[in-house]
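Memo to structure team: turn this sequence into structure tokens by end of day. - J.P.
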Amino acid sequence: MSYADVNGLRLWYEVHGTGQPLVLLHGGYGAVEMFQPILPTLAARRRVIGVDLQGHGRTADVDRPLRYESMADDIAALLRHLGLPQAELMGYSLGGGVALRTAIQHPDLVRRLVLVSTPCRRGGWYPEVLAAMAAQDERVAEQMRGTPPHELYLRRAPRPQDWPTLWAKTGDLLRREYDWSAEVAALALPVLLVFADADSVPVSHVAEFFGLLGGGRRDAGWDGTDRPASRLAVLPGLTHYDIVASPALPEAVLPFLTHEVRAPA
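Reply from structure team:
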């Protein structure tokens, strides 16, 4: 458990287990602890590196806006700081956007990519979810005092008084339009998309996202010859808010991380 000085930021990370490195990136208003229920399962098979993103958990905020692109650069800098030529990345929700941008901006550093409950464009969220995101600001931060995310923040943040600032900066991030479809279609690494069957992202966008990765275009053939390198998992009986703690998540992720990818013909 330590800090890495990267890009003017003291980035908190902690390491569990041994083997191939797997970087975990939490969702908004969270920290590494979001993955606590599934961490032992992942760490039994991987060297898990949990990160607290800018302004979250033990990583204090700095004088720059929250942006997927800059946080992705932080993760790339962390990997270089740790002397890792490549790693697997797994990001949930907000962290999924950071993981995706890391693969887009630093493709040489990412071996495989797991994206949990995150779209590839802003319009991929349900309209009511977008409306709630657009409303996030300091006033909502006050309403969230005493909730589990706030209690975690109080226990972990170097400056607990920055709670309203985190909400203001996150709201500014979530109101920004983005569409990474073309960059997703150009990715050359295997990607696993994982969604709940009652997620904040509609199934129509899930299918669109998977299609950009070469999935859902043809029958794989009796021997799987035409199966795409990327994969899709829709986990039943879960939502956007409990998928990250479900034992079904590592059950879907670990086989993807270990399966052999067939070279294109």
